[in-house]
Amino acid sequence: MKEKQIAIPVRPEEADDIRVTLELDNGEVECEILTIFEAGGRDYIALMPLNPDGTENEEGEVYLYRYAEDAEGLPQIDIIDDDAEYEVAADRFDEFLDENLYEEMDEEEE
Known about the structure:
Layout: E1 4-6, E2 19-24, E3 27-39, E4 42-49, E5 63-69, E6 75-78, H1 83-109
Antiparallel strand pairs: 1-6, 2-3, 3-4, 4-5, 5-6
């Protein structure tokens, strides 16, 4: 896998409409942006790989990458190769999922 991937510029509110194509060792994978979030003083992006037909994968697999913007404002994603950093990002992403689950439950009750 390449060390850095260039992503399409996106604001968090636009994330649902944008796809990112990753070049992995076993070929290209199109991903849906789930969220861009902060953890431990850094920004991260959560990507869900899509099936070849563009539907969500049934395993619930998610890729986490470090997220930043270069000097021109173009987003870049980098692999997280430090286990401790990955744990910080994964824990925050789990919190995000829990928060959204509770929000959805509250909306259904209203």
